[in-house]
Amino acid sequence: MRPSERTPEQLRTVTLETGVNRYAEGSCLVSFGHTKVLVTASIEEKVPGWMRNSGQGWVTAEYGMLPRATHTRGRREAAAGKQSGRTQEIQRLIGRSLRAVVDLKALGERQVLIDCDVIQADGGTRTASITGAWVAMASALNYLKDEGVLTTDPILDQVAAVSCGVFKDLPVLDLDYEEDSTAEADSNFVLTGAGQIVEIQATGEKRGFSRAEFDRLFELAEIGCAELFALQRAAVEAARR
Q1: What is the DSSP string of 2-54?
Q2: Is residue 190 classed as helix, strand or coil in its secondary structure?
Q3: What are residue 200's DSSP bridge partners?
Q4: Is 182 one of the annotated binding-site residues?
Q5: Where do the annotations place phosphate binding (predicted)?
Q6: Digit-coded pLDDT (tens) for 84-94
Q7: Backbone phi, psi, residue 137, to 5°
Q8: Helix, strand, or coil here: 220?
Q9: Which of 21, 118, 175, 240 lies at a C-alpha separation of 20 to 30 Å from 183?
Q10: Whole-model pTM above 0.90?
Q11: Is 125 marked within a binding site?
């Protein structure tokens, strides 16, 4: 039995609340159990200098954790004067994941900036960020379509992410911190609604893991993402009402 008493293929309770920021073009408060991330999507009518006159837009992301998102207070990275390698890696992952399902030409020469602020961390903050970021981005682009700024939907597909791991020799879905901190193997899967792979991060933490274990982790990720896609669609639809 898992510490949370979930079955191996069971997600934590996931909620995607839209419209939580009155100023951003799109926003989502995403919760995976006790992990909570506030995601906003902002539209800028310009692109980075290296993309000017390209006829294409851009999607990028920033990620950060509030000081008391974890068990002990962490120092703000702004106070340290630089971002950690972990922060840079995660925000690049979020940006890559979203760009994989966006037609940048249809977006036009404008930029979608995604901000992911971890309010509370209990494992899976990057996967929660990606899942909530798609909802915030879709809401922002729907706003542009409703305003007549966009005539073509730039979103090609959904994208969501979930963690899987081997815990006490059992492959399980959506690890919380207690499982993640002691897992024999840990992985993050970023998948599209069409079933394509955007990225897989998989690591043997305490031992190597077998092909059979990996195949089961992949199967669990597909099960979990199917549920997340349904929740994303419902959240975006609710935001339009």
Answers
A1: -TT---TTPPPPEEEEE---SSSSEEEEEEETTEEEEEEEEEES---GGGTTS
A2: strand
A3: 189
A4: no
A5: 86, 124-126
A6: 899 999 999 99
A7: -65, -45
A8: helix
A9: 118
A10: yes
A11: yes
Domains of the chain: 14-240 (3.30.230.70)
Please count the other Cβ atoms lying within 10 Å of the Cβ belonging to residue 80: 10
Q: Which tops the pLDDT comparison, 74 or 166? A: 166
3-state helix, strand, coil in the chain (%, to 5): 35, 30, 35
Can you say how many angstroms the Cα of residue 218 is from the centroid of all Cα atoms in its chain? 17
Are 130 and 161 in contact by the 8 Å Cβ rule? The answer is yes
Asked whether residue 124 is marked as a ligand-binding residue, the answer is yes
37-68 per-position pLDDT tens digit: 999 999 999 999 898 989 999 999 999 999 99
| 192 HSE (CA, 13 A, CB side) | 15
Q: Which amino acid is present at 9?
A: E
Closest by CA position to 200, among listed 62, 65, 97:
97
DSSP state of 155: B
**Residue 220 · residue 164 · CB < 8 Å:** yes
- Residue range 165-224, pLDDT digits in tens: 999 999 999 999 999 999 999 999 999 999 999 999 999 999 999 999 999 999 999 999
**Annotated binding residue 86:** yes
DSSP secondary structure code for residue 73 in this structure = P
Token pair listed for 142: 């729907």
